[in-house]
Protein backbone atom coordinates (compact mmCIF):
# COMPACT_ATOMS: atom_id res chain seq x y z
CA UNK A 1 0.00 0.00 0.00
CA UNK A 2 2.86 2.40 0.82
CA UNK A 3 4.40 1.75 -2.62
CA UNK A 4 1.11 2.47 -4.42
CA UNK A 5 0.50 5.63 -2.39
CA UNK A 6 4.08 6.83 -2.99
CA UNK A 7 3.83 6.09 -6.73
CA UNK A 8 0.57 8.04 -7.00
CA UNK A 9 2.15 11.00 -5.21
CA UNK A 10 5.22 10.94 -7.49
CA UNK A 11 3.05 10.87 -10.62
CA UNK A 12 0.95 13.79 -9.32
CA UNK A 13 4.04 15.80 -8.43
CA UNK A 14 5.68 15.23 -11.81
CA UNK A 15 2.50 16.14 -13.68
CA UNK A 16 1.94 19.35 -11.72
CA UNK A 17 5.60 20.33 -11.89
CA UNK A 18 5.58 20.34 -15.69
CA UNK A 19 2.75 22.87 -15.74
CA UNK A 20 4.69 25.72 -14.11
CA UNK A 21 8.39 25.80 -15.09
CA UNK A 22 10.49 28.32 -13.20
CA UNK A 23 12.40 30.90 -15.22
CA UNK A 24 15.94 30.20 -14.03
CA UNK A 25 17.87 33.14 -15.55
CA UNK A 26 20.94 30.92 -16.00
CA UNK A 27 22.64 30.54 -19.37
CA UNK A 28 24.74 27.51 -18.41
CA UNK A 29 26.40 25.68 -15.52
CA UNK A 30 29.77 23.98 -15.96
CA UNK A 31 31.48 21.72 -13.41
CA UNK A 32 34.87 22.86 -12.13
CA UNK A 33 35.19 19.89 -9.78
CA UNK A 34 32.78 17.46 -8.21
CA UNK A 35 32.57 15.55 -4.96
CA UNK A 36 34.89 12.54 -4.54
CA UNK A 37 34.21 9.81 -7.03
CA UNK A 38 31.33 7.56 -6.14
CA UNK A 39 28.87 5.30 -7.96
CA UNK A 40 26.10 7.06 -9.86
CA UNK A 41 23.17 7.82 -7.58
CA UNK A 42 19.57 8.74 -8.20
CA UNK A 43 17.71 11.09 -5.90
CA UNK A 44 14.76 9.90 -3.89
CA UNK A 45 13.03 10.16 -0.55
CA UNK A 46 14.85 7.02 0.68
CA UNK A 47 18.26 8.09 -0.77
CA UNK A 48 19.09 11.19 1.21
CA UNK A 49 22.85 11.51 0.67
CA UNK A 50 25.42 13.24 -1.56
CA UNK A 51 24.26 13.43 -5.17
CA UNK A 52 26.03 13.44 -8.53
CA UNK A 53 24.72 16.29 -10.66
CA UNK A 54 22.50 15.32 -13.57
CA UNK A 55 23.81 17.06 -16.73
CA UNK A 56 20.28 17.12 -18.14
CA UNK A 57 19.26 19.55 -15.37
CA UNK A 58 21.29 22.75 -15.82
CA UNK A 59 19.56 24.43 -12.85
CA UNK A 60 20.48 21.75 -10.30
CA UNK A 61 23.70 21.67 -8.30
CA UNK A 62 25.28 18.89 -6.28
CA UNK A 63 28.32 18.90 -4.01
CA UNK A 64 31.39 20.31 -5.72
CA UNK A 65 32.50 23.49 -7.53
CA UNK A 66 30.56 24.96 -10.43
CA UNK A 67 30.81 27.83 -12.86
CA UNK A 68 27.41 29.53 -13.18
CA UNK A 69 26.81 31.90 -16.11
CA UNK A 70 23.79 34.21 -15.65
CA UNK A 71 21.88 35.51 -18.67
CA UNK A 72 22.90 38.97 -19.77
CA UNK A 73 20.98 42.21 -19.32
CA UNK A 74 19.45 41.49 -15.89
CA UNK A 75 19.03 44.43 -13.50
CA UNK A 76 20.40 43.86 -9.98
CA UNK A 77 20.75 40.11 -10.41
CA UNK A 78 20.56 37.79 -7.41
CA UNK A 79 21.87 34.24 -7.36
CA UNK A 80 19.31 32.16 -5.46
CA UNK A 81 19.90 28.71 -3.97
CA UNK A 82 16.50 27.31 -3.01
CA UNK A 83 15.86 25.11 0.03
CA UNK A 84 19.54 24.67 0.94
CA UNK A 85 18.78 22.53 4.00
CA UNK A 86 22.17 21.27 5.28
CA UNK A 87 24.30 22.66 2.44
CA UNK A 88 27.01 25.28 2.78
CA UNK A 89 27.17 27.42 -0.35
CA UNK A 90 30.07 29.70 -1.21
CA UNK A 91 29.97 32.12 -4.15
CA UNK A 92 33.14 33.67 -5.57
CA UNK A 93 32.68 36.60 -7.97
CA UNK A 94 35.33 38.43 -10.00
CA UNK A 95 38.96 38.09 -9.00
CA UNK A 96 39.78 40.10 -5.92
CA UNK A 97 36.25 40.10 -4.48
CA UNK A 98 35.78 38.30 -1.17
CA UNK A 99 33.82 35.03 -1.28
CA UNK A 100 30.31 34.95 0.16
CA UNK A 101 29.53 31.84 2.23
CA UNK A 102 26.07 31.08 3.61
CA UNK A 103 24.09 28.27 5.28
CA UNK A 104 20.44 28.06 6.24
CA UNK A 105 21.39 28.02 9.93
CA UNK A 106 23.26 31.32 10.03
CA UNK A 107 21.45 33.81 12.30
CA UNK A 108 22.99 36.82 10.50
CA UNK A 109 21.72 36.35 6.93
CA UNK A 110 20.45 39.47 5.14
CA UNK A 111 17.17 40.24 6.99
CA UNK A 112 15.52 41.84 3.95
CA UNK A 113 14.99 38.40 2.41
CA UNK A 114 13.20 35.34 3.72
CA UNK A 115 15.10 32.07 4.05
CA UNK A 116 13.45 29.82 1.51
CA UNK A 117 16.53 30.64 -0.59
CA UNK A 118 20.11 31.69 0.08
CA UNK A 119 20.57 35.05 -1.65
CA UNK A 120 23.85 36.17 -3.22
CA UNK A 121 23.93 39.62 -4.90
CA UNK A 122 25.85 39.57 -8.20
CA UNK A 123 27.82 42.47 -9.63
CA UNK A 124 26.61 41.85 -13.19
CA UNK A 125 26.24 39.09 -15.75
CA UNK A 126 29.78 37.75 -15.34
CA UNK A 127 30.16 34.09 -14.45
CA UNK A 128 30.63 33.20 -10.79
CA UNK A 129 32.10 30.20 -9.06
CA UNK A 130 29.77 28.32 -6.73
CA UNK A 131 31.03 25.80 -4.20
CA UNK A 132 28.55 23.39 -2.56
CA UNK A 133 29.39 21.30 0.49
CA UNK A 134 27.26 19.01 2.65
CA UNK A 135 24.20 18.98 0.37
CA UNK A 136 21.87 16.09 1.06
CA UNK A 137 19.47 17.00 -1.74
CA UNK A 138 19.98 18.35 -5.24
CA UNK A 139 19.90 22.15 -4.99
CA UNK A 140 17.74 24.27 -7.30
CA UNK A 141 19.45 27.50 -8.36
CA UNK A 142 18.25 30.54 -10.29
CA UNK A 143 19.29 34.07 -11.10
CA UNK A 144 16.50 36.65 -10.86
CA UNK A 145 16.25 40.44 -10.82
CA UNK A 146 16.15 41.74 -7.27
CA UNK A 147 12.69 43.28 -7.77
CA UNK A 148 11.22 39.99 -9.00
CA UNK A 149 12.67 38.03 -6.10
CA UNK A 150 11.44 40.55 -3.52
CA UNK A 151 7.91 40.36 -4.97
CA UNK A 152 7.92 36.55 -4.75
CA UNK A 153 9.56 36.68 -1.35
CA UNK A 154 6.89 39.00 0.00
CA UNK A 155 4.20 36.55 -1.05
CA UNK A 156 6.10 33.78 0.72
CA UNK A 157 6.34 35.81 3.92
CA UNK A 158 2.66 36.78 3.84
CA UNK A 159 1.53 33.19 3.40
CA UNK A 160 3.85 31.99 6.15
CA UNK A 161 2.72 34.71 8.56
CA UNK A 162 -0.95 33.96 7.89
CA UNK A 163 -0.44 30.26 8.49
CA UNK A 164 1.65 30.82 11.62
CA UNK A 165 -0.96 33.21 13.00
CA UNK A 166 -3.72 30.65 12.52
CA UNK A 167 -1.64 27.87 14.09
CA UNK A 168 -0.66 29.95 17.11
CA UNK A 169 -4.19 31.25 17.66
CA UNK A 170 -5.86 27.84 17.40
CA UNK A 171 -3.19 26.10 19.50
CA UNK A 172 -3.45 28.69 22.29
CA UNK A 173 -7.26 28.47 22.28
CA UNK A 174 -7.19 24.69 22.59
CA UNK A 175 -4.52 24.95 25.29
CA UNK A 176 -6.90 27.12 27.30
CA UNK A 177 -9.57 24.43 26.88
CA UNK A 178 -7.10 21.91 28.30
CA UNK A 179 -6.32 24.21 31.25
CA UNK A 180 -10.03 24.21 32.13
CA UNK A 181 -11.13 20.70 31.13
CA UNK A 182 -7.89 18.79 31.83
CA UNK A 183 -8.61 16.33 29.02
CA UNK A 184 -5.41 14.96 27.47
CA UNK A 185 -6.47 15.24 23.84
CA UNK A 186 -6.51 19.05 24.06
CA UNK A 187 -2.94 19.13 25.40
CA UNK A 188 -1.79 16.68 22.72
CA UNK A 189 -3.44 18.79 20.04
CA UNK A 190 -1.76 21.99 21.25
CA UNK A 191 1.62 20.22 21.49
CA UNK A 192 1.21 18.70 18.02
CA UNK A 193 0.36 22.05 16.42
CA UNK A 194 3.26 23.76 18.25
CA UNK A 195 5.76 21.15 17.08
CA UNK A 196 4.48 21.23 13.50
CA UNK A 197 4.74 25.01 13.52
CA UNK A 198 8.30 24.77 14.85
CA UNK A 199 9.18 22.21 12.17
CA UNK A 200 7.68 24.46 9.49
CA UNK A 201 9.72 27.44 10.68
CA UNK A 202 12.92 25.40 10.91
CA UNK A 203 12.54 23.68 7.53
CA UNK A 204 11.82 27.06 5.89
CA UNK A 205 14.74 28.56 7.84
CA UNK A 206 12.74 31.36 9.46
CA UNK A 207 13.22 29.99 12.99
CA UNK A 208 16.92 30.85 12.86
CA UNK A 209 16.13 34.54 12.34
CA UNK A 210 13.85 34.79 15.38
CA UNK A 211 15.41 35.88 18.70
CA UNK A 212 13.77 33.14 20.77
CA UNK A 213 14.55 30.33 18.30
CA UNK A 214 17.86 31.22 16.67
CA UNK A 215 19.66 29.14 19.29
CA UNK A 216 18.37 26.05 17.47
CA UNK A 217 20.80 26.81 14.65
CA UNK A 218 23.63 25.13 16.59
CA UNK A 219 21.93 21.75 16.09
CA UNK A 220 21.86 22.11 12.31
CA UNK A 221 20.00 19.52 10.25
CA UNK A 222 19.84 16.96 13.12
CA UNK A 223 17.79 19.52 15.03
CA UNK A 224 15.20 19.52 12.24
CA UNK A 225 15.20 15.72 12.22
CA UNK A 226 14.62 15.67 15.97
CA UNK A 227 11.70 18.14 15.80
CA UNK A 228 10.08 16.31 12.87
CA UNK A 229 10.30 12.94 14.62
CA UNK A 230 9.03 14.28 17.95
CA UNK A 231 6.15 15.97 16.12
CA UNK A 232 5.22 12.64 14.52
CA UNK A 233 5.25 10.87 17.89
CA UNK A 234 3.04 13.46 19.60
CA UNK A 235 0.68 13.60 16.63
CA UNK A 236 0.22 9.82 16.67
CA UNK A 237 -0.96 9.93 20.28
CA UNK A 238 -3.18 12.91 19.47
CA UNK A 239 -4.84 10.96 16.62
CA UNK A 240 -5.33 7.91 18.83
CA UNK A 241 -7.18 9.97 21.45
CA UNK A 242 -8.92 12.35 19.05
CA UNK A 243 -10.54 9.66 16.89
CA UNK A 244 -10.79 7.02 19.68
CA UNK A 245 -8.78 4.62 17.49
CA UNK A 246 -7.96 2.35 20.41
CA UNK A 247 -11.68 1.61 20.65
CA UNK A 248 -12.58 1.44 16.95
CA UNK A 249 -9.43 -0.24 15.56
CA UNK A 250 -7.34 -1.66 18.43
CA UNK A 251 -4.93 -3.66 16.25
CA UNK A 252 -4.25 -0.85 13.80
CA UNK A 253 -3.82 1.59 16.66
CA UNK A 254 -1.20 -0.73 18.19
CA UNK A 255 0.63 -0.70 14.86
CA UNK A 256 0.49 3.10 14.82
CA UNK A 257 2.06 3.24 18.27
CA UNK A 258 4.94 1.00 17.17
CA UNK A 259 5.58 2.73 13.83
CA UNK A 260 4.87 6.28 14.96
CA UNK A 261 6.00 6.36 18.60
CA UNK A 262 8.01 3.42 19.96
CA UNK A 263 10.44 2.92 17.05
CA UNK A 264 10.91 6.68 16.45
CA UNK A 265 11.56 7.06 20.18
CA UNK A 266 14.43 4.56 19.90
CA UNK A 267 15.76 6.40 16.84
CA UNK A 268 15.70 9.70 18.74
CA UNK A 269 17.79 8.12 21.52
CA UNK A 270 20.33 6.95 18.95
CA UNK A 271 20.34 10.42 17.41
CA UNK A 272 21.20 12.21 20.67
CA UNK A 273 23.57 9.55 22.06
CA UNK A 274 27.25 9.62 21.02
CA UNK A 275 26.94 6.13 19.55
CA UNK A 276 26.70 5.58 16.66
CA UNK A 277 28.97 8.49 15.73
CA UNK A 278 27.66 8.80 12.15
CA UNK A 279 24.00 9.85 11.86
CA UNK A 280 23.54 9.80 8.07
CA UNK A 281 21.19 6.84 8.36
CA UNK A 282 18.62 8.82 10.38
CA UNK A 283 16.81 10.74 7.58
CA UNK A 284 16.28 7.61 5.51
CA UNK A 285 14.87 5.72 8.50
CA UNK A 286 12.79 8.74 9.50
CA UNK A 287 11.35 9.15 5.99
CA UNK A 288 10.41 5.47 5.85
CA UNK A 289 8.68 5.60 9.23
CA UNK A 290 6.95 8.87 8.29
CA UNK A 291 5.38 7.34 5.16
CA UNK A 292 4.52 4.05 6.85
CA UNK A 293 2.95 5.77 9.87
CA UNK A 294 0.85 8.10 7.73
CA UNK A 295 -0.31 5.28 5.47
CA UNK A 296 -1.31 3.18 8.49
CA UNK A 297 -2.97 6.18 10.15
CA UNK A 298 -5.09 6.92 7.08
CA UNK A 299 -6.11 3.23 6.88
CA UNK A 300 -7.02 3.18 10.59
CA UNK A 301 -9.01 6.39 10.27
CA UNK A 302 -10.90 5.08 7.24
CA UNK A 303 -11.82 1.87 9.03
CA UNK A 304 -12.82 3.74 12.20
CA UNK A 305 -14.92 6.18 10.18
CA UNK A 306 -16.70 3.36 8.33
CA UNK A 307 -17.43 1.70 11.67
CA UNK A 308 -19.11 4.83 12.97
CA UNK A 309 -16.25 6.89 14.38
CA UNK A 310 -17.52 10.39 13.65
CA UNK A 311 -14.34 12.20 14.68
CA UNK A 312 -12.19 9.97 12.48
CA UNK A 313 -13.94 11.73 9.59
CA UNK A 314 -12.72 15.12 10.83
CA UNK A 315 -9.17 13.81 10.97
CA UNK A 316 -9.39 12.41 7.44
CA UNK A 317 -10.57 15.76 6.08
CA UNK A 318 -7.66 17.49 7.81
CA UNK A 319 -4.94 14.89 7.50
CA UNK A 320 -5.06 13.58 3.93
CA UNK A 321 -4.27 16.98 2.29
CA UNK A 322 -1.47 17.58 4.80
CA UNK A 323 0.09 14.16 4.16
CA UNK A 324 -0.12 14.71 0.40
CA UNK A 325 1.54 18.13 0.52
CA UNK A 326 4.23 16.99 2.99
CA UNK A 327 5.09 13.93 0.91
CA UNK A 328 5.00 15.87 -2.35
CA UNK A 329 7.40 18.49 -1.00
CA UNK A 330 9.79 15.85 0.33
CA UNK A 331 9.75 14.04 -3.02
CA UNK A 332 10.34 17.19 -5.05
CA UNK A 333 13.25 18.24 -2.85
CA UNK A 334 14.88 14.81 -2.83
CA UNK A 335 14.43 14.28 -6.59
CA UNK A 336 15.70 17.71 -7.61
CA UNK A 337 12.34 18.89 -8.98
CA UNK A 338 11.67 22.63 -8.61
CA UNK A 339 9.24 23.44 -5.81
CA UNK A 340 6.22 24.94 -7.52
CA UNK A 341 4.33 27.91 -6.00
CA UNK A 342 1.24 25.78 -5.36
CA UNK A 343 3.36 23.55 -3.14
CA UNK A 344 5.64 26.19 -1.65
CA UNK A 345 2.66 28.28 -0.50
CA UNK A 346 0.26 25.37 -0.15
CA UNK A 347 2.06 23.45 2.60
CA UNK A 348 1.79 26.13 5.33
CA UNK A 349 -1.77 26.95 4.24
CA UNK A 350 -2.78 23.28 4.35
CA UNK A 351 -1.19 23.00 7.79
CA UNK A 352 -3.31 25.94 8.95
CA UNK A 353 -6.38 24.36 7.30
CA UNK A 354 -5.70 21.09 9.12
CA UNK A 355 -5.37 22.93 12.44
CA UNK A 356 -8.73 24.67 11.95
CA UNK A 357 -10.54 21.48 10.88
CA UNK A 358 -9.13 19.53 13.82
CA UNK A 359 -10.11 22.37 16.16
CA UNK A 360 -13.65 22.24 14.75
CA UNK A 361 -13.61 18.50 15.41
CA UNK A 362 -12.59 19.15 19.01
CA UNK A 363 -15.45 21.63 19.31
CA UNK A 364 -17.81 19.00 17.89
CA UNK A 365 -16.36 16.48 20.32
CA UNK A 366 -17.01 18.89 23.20
CA UNK A 367 -20.55 19.47 21.95
CA UNK A 368 -21.16 15.73 21.68
CA UNK A 369 -19.96 15.14 25.23
CA UNK A 370 -22.10 18.04 26.43
CA UNK A 371 -25.17 16.63 24.72
CA UNK A 372 -24.50 13.20 26.22
CA UNK A 373 -24.07 14.78 29.64
CA UNK A 374 -27.25 16.82 29.26
CA UNK A 375 -29.15 13.74 28.09
CA UNK A 376 -27.92 11.74 31.06
CA UNK A 377 -28.77 14.60 33.40
CA UNK A 378 -32.21 14.95 31.85
CA UNK A 379 -32.83 11.24 32.33
CA UNK A 380 -31.68 11.51 35.94
CA UNK A 381 -33.98 14.48 36.60
CA UNK A 382 -37.04 13.32 34.67
CA UNK A 383 -40.00 11.25 35.79
CA UNK A 384 -40.16 8.30 33.41
CA UNK A 385 -43.97 8.07 33.48
CA UNK A 386 -45.07 11.67 32.93
CA UNK A 387 -41.94 13.24 31.41
CA UNK A 388 -41.87 16.13 33.91
CA UNK A 389 -39.08 16.61 36.43
CA UNK A 390 -38.80 14.17 39.30
CA UNK A 391 -38.29 15.22 42.90
CA UNK A 392 -34.52 15.76 42.55
CA UNK A 393 -34.98 17.73 39.35
CA UNK A 394 -37.72 20.06 40.59
CA UNK A 395 -35.93 20.70 43.89
CA UNK A 396 -32.80 21.65 41.97
CA UNK A 397 -34.75 24.06 39.73
CA UNK A 398 -36.60 25.56 42.69
CA UNK A 399 -33.31 26.16 44.46
CA UNK A 400 -32.14 28.26 41.51
CA UNK A 401 -35.51 30.02 41.35
CA UNK A 402 -35.26 31.02 45.03
CA UNK A 403 -31.74 32.37 44.50
CA UNK A 404 -32.95 34.36 41.51
CA UNK A 405 -35.88 35.71 43.54
CA UNK A 406 -33.54 37.06 46.20
CA UNK A 407 -31.10 38.48 43.65
CA UNK A 408 -33.65 40.11 41.33
CA UNK A 409 -36.38 40.88 43.83
CA UNK A 410 -39.12 39.21 41.75
CA UNK A 411 -41.87 37.13 43.38
CA UNK A 412 -42.03 33.34 43.32
CA UNK A 413 -44.99 31.18 44.28
CA UNK A 414 -45.45 27.43 44.56
CA UNK A 415 -48.55 25.32 43.92
CA UNK A 416 -48.79 21.91 45.58
CA UNK A 417 -51.27 19.72 43.66
CA UNK A 418 -52.66 16.43 44.96
CA UNK A 419 -55.19 14.39 42.94
CA UNK A 420 -58.27 13.61 44.99
CA UNK A 421 -59.22 10.00 45.74
CA UNK A 422 -56.49 8.73 43.43
CA UNK A 423 -56.08 5.45 45.33
CA UNK A 424 -59.73 4.62 44.64
CA UNK A 425 -59.14 5.29 40.92
CA UNK A 426 -56.25 2.81 40.90
CA UNK A 427 -58.16 0.23 42.91
CA UNK A 428 -61.32 0.52 40.83
CA UNK A 429 -59.96 0.95 37.28
CA UNK A 430 -56.42 -0.38 37.51
CA UNK A 431 -52.98 1.19 37.44
CA UNK A 432 -53.02 1.69 33.67
CA UNK A 433 -55.96 4.05 33.99
CA UNK A 434 -54.31 5.68 37.01
CA UNK A 435 -51.14 6.27 34.93
CA UNK A 436 -53.32 7.73 32.18
CA UNK A 437 -54.84 10.15 34.71
CA UNK A 438 -51.38 11.34 35.74
CA UNK A 439 -50.37 11.91 32.11
CA UNK A 440 -53.63 13.70 31.36
CA UNK A 441 -53.13 16.10 34.27
CA UNK A 442 -49.53 16.79 33.18
CA UNK A 443 -50.61 17.52 29.61
CA UNK A 444 -53.28 19.94 30.82
CA UNK A 445 -50.95 21.79 33.21
CA UNK A 446 -48.11 21.90 30.66
CA UNK A 447 -50.40 23.66 28.23
CA UNK A 448 -50.88 26.48 30.75
CA UNK A 449 -47.21 27.03 31.63
CA UNK A 450 -45.38 30.26 30.88
CA UNK A 451 -41.66 30.93 30.49
CA UNK A 452 -39.85 30.18 33.74
CA UNK A 453 -42.59 28.00 35.24
CA UNK A 454 -41.39 24.63 36.57
CA UNK A 455 -43.53 21.50 36.93
CA UNK A 456 -42.39 18.41 38.79
CA UNK A 457 -43.76 15.21 40.28
CA UNK A 458 -42.80 14.54 43.89
CA UNK A 459 -44.17 11.02 43.80
CA UNK A 460 -47.49 9.18 43.54
CA UNK A 461 -50.23 11.69 42.72
CA UNK A 462 -48.38 14.75 44.13
CA UNK A 463 -47.08 17.54 41.88
CA UNK A 464 -45.54 20.94 42.51
CA UNK A 465 -45.63 23.89 40.14
CA UNK A 466 -43.20 26.79 40.56
CA UNK A 467 -44.52 30.08 39.15
CA UNK A 468 -41.70 32.53 38.51
CA UNK A 469 -42.74 36.17 38.75
CA UNK A 470 -46.12 35.33 40.31
CA UNK A 471 -47.19 36.78 43.64
CA UNK A 472 -49.73 35.11 45.92
CA UNK A 473 -52.75 36.66 44.21
CA UNK A 474 -51.69 35.66 40.72
CA UNK A 475 -50.70 32.20 41.90
CA UNK A 476 -54.11 31.73 43.54
CA UNK A 477 -55.86 32.71 40.32
CA UNK A 478 -53.69 30.24 38.41
CA UNK A 479 -54.45 27.49 40.91
CA UNK A 480 -58.19 28.09 40.67
CA UNK A 481 -57.98 28.05 36.87
CA UNK A 482 -56.12 24.72 36.89
CA UNK A 483 -58.55 23.23 39.39
CA UNK A 484 -61.51 24.08 37.15
CA UNK A 485 -59.74 22.83 34.01
CA UNK A 486 -58.85 19.48 35.60
CA UNK A 487 -62.40 19.02 36.92
CA UNK A 488 -63.83 19.75 33.48
CA UNK A 489 -61.36 18.08 31.14
CA UNK A 490 -60.22 15.10 33.23
CA UNK A 491 -63.69 13.82 34.03
CA UNK A 492 -63.22 11.16 31.38
CA UNK A 493 -59.75 9.68 30.81
CA UNK A 494 -59.04 7.08 28.12
CA UNK A 495 -62.78 6.56 27.64
CA UNK A 496 -63.46 5.87 31.32
CA UNK A 497 -65.37 8.25 33.60
CA UNK A 498 -63.05 8.81 36.56
CA UNK A 499 -64.37 12.25 37.68
CA UNK A 500 -60.86 13.41 38.53
CA UNK A 501 -60.42 16.48 40.77
CA UNK A 502 -57.47 18.10 42.50
CA UNK A 503 -56.75 19.89 45.78
CA UNK A 504 -54.17 22.69 45.53
CA UNK A 505 -52.15 24.53 48.17
CA UNK A 506 -50.54 27.90 47.38
CA UNK A 507 -47.51 29.47 49.10
CA UNK A 508 -45.49 32.55 48.17
CA UNK A 509 -41.73 32.45 48.75
CA UNK A 510 -40.43 34.75 51.48
CA UNK A 511 -36.92 35.86 52.35
CA UNK A 512 -36.30 32.98 54.78
CA UNK A 513 -37.59 30.16 52.62
CA UNK A 514 -35.55 27.22 51.45
CA UNK A 515 -36.81 24.68 48.94
CA UNK A 516 -37.86 22.37 51.76
CA UNK A 517 -39.70 25.06 53.75
CA UNK A 518 -41.48 26.43 50.66
CA UNK A 519 -42.72 22.97 49.70
CA UNK A 520 -43.72 22.28 53.30
CA UNK A 521 -45.81 25.45 53.49
CA UNK A 522 -47.55 24.73 50.16
CA UNK A 523 -48.13 21.14 51.30
CA UNK A 524 -49.73 22.42 54.49
CA UNK A 525 -52.12 24.58 52.49
CA UNK A 526 -52.98 21.58 50.32
CA UNK A 527 -53.88 19.52 53.39
CA UNK A 528 -56.19 22.33 54.51
CA UNK A 529 -57.89 22.01 51.11
CA UNK A 530 -58.18 18.25 51.57
CA UNK A 531 -59.73 18.60 55.02
CA UNK A 532 -61.99 21.33 53.70
CA UNK A 533 -63.73 18.93 51.31
CA UNK A 534 -61.25 18.44 48.43
CA UNK A 535 -61.45 19.94 44.93
CA UNK A 536 -60.52 23.35 46.22
CA UNK A 537 -57.66 25.86 46.55
CA UNK A 538 -56.18 27.05 49.84
CA UNK A 539 -53.54 29.72 50.34
CA UNK A 540 -50.79 29.63 52.95
CA UNK A 541 -50.76 32.98 54.66
CA UNK A 542 -47.53 34.94 54.33
CA UNK A 543 -45.02 34.61 57.16
CA UNK A 544 -42.31 37.03 58.17
CA UNK A 545 -39.23 36.72 55.96
TrEMBL record:
Its EC number is 2.7.7.65. Pfam families: 7TMR-DISM_7TM, GGDEF. Residues 410-542 form the GGDEF domain. Keywords: Membrane, Signal, Transmembrane, Transmembrane helix. InterPro entries: 7TMR_DISM_rcpt_extracell_dom1, Diguanylate_Cyclase, GGDEF_dom, Nucleotide_cyclase, Rev_trsase/Diguanyl_cyclase. It is an enzyme of class 2 (transferase). The keyword Chloroplast does not apply. PROSITE patterns: GGDEF. Residues 1-21 form the signal peptide. The keyword Signal applies. The chain crosses the membrane at residues 159-179, 186-204, 224-245, 257-276, 288-305, 312-331, 343-363. This is diguanylate cyclase.
